[in-house]
Inverse folding.
């Protein structure tokens, strides 16, 4: 817990200090030369009219939209996926997984944090496959609307600090004799 808390806290602090504003990247450049930045604003993209939806209780709970650089064909493997869990945006998505032109335009300029190809879970891969998309091995997953915050830094570092306190209490309880053991040795 301590290592994870401090590790994620330091990582979040690094992102916040080195990438205080989203780095603007055209979709074509993201595929050819991904920047080292974690927080991106993708531009000159086209959103595919079909999204992969995970439905729950008759409403979209998550969606994965495919972005392509302007002019790319739908026959090309998918290199950019936007993961959407924003309730307001999901509430505007039709249940059949087709996007209105307004939603396509909203997604064509996406801002969020990069999760990398390992950020695409099995459910998303299955739903994208069912929707007819071929996902490239080096796919970049962007979490729509996600941004680094100071609150995340404080929360992760606080969790790490809590782990240090718990470890100290444990070590002290092992090293410090209890009152019962002191009495037993005095009586003997």
């Amino acid at each position: 817990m301590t290592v994870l808390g401090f590790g994620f806290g330091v990582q979040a602090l690094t992102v916040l200090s080195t990438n205080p504003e989203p780095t603007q990247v055209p979709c074509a450049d993201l595929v050819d030369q991904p920047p080292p930045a974690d927080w991106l604003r993708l531009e000159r993209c086209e959103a595919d009219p079909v999204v992969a939806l995970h439905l729950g209780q008759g409403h979209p709970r998550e969606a994965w939209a495919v972005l392509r650089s302007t002019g790319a064909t739908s026959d090309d493997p998918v290199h950019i996926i936007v993961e959407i869990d924003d309730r307001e945006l999901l509430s505007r998505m039709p249940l059949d997984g087709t996007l209105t032109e307004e939603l396509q335009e909203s997604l064509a300029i996406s801002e969020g944090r990069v999760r990398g190809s390992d950020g695409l879970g099995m459910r998303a891969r299955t739903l994208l496959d069912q929707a007819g998309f071929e996902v490239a091995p080096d796919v970049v997953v962007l979490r729509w609307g996600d941004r680094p915050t100071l609150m995340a830094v404080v929360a992760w570092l606080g969790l790490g600090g809590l782990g240090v306190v718990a470890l100290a209490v444990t070590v002290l309880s092992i090293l410090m004799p209890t009152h019962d053991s002191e009495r037993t040795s005095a009586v003997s």
User: Anything to note?
Assistant: Residues 150-175 form the longest helix (26 residues). The chain has seven helices and seven strands. The first strand starts at residue 23 and ends at 26. The two ends are 42 Å apart (CA to CA).
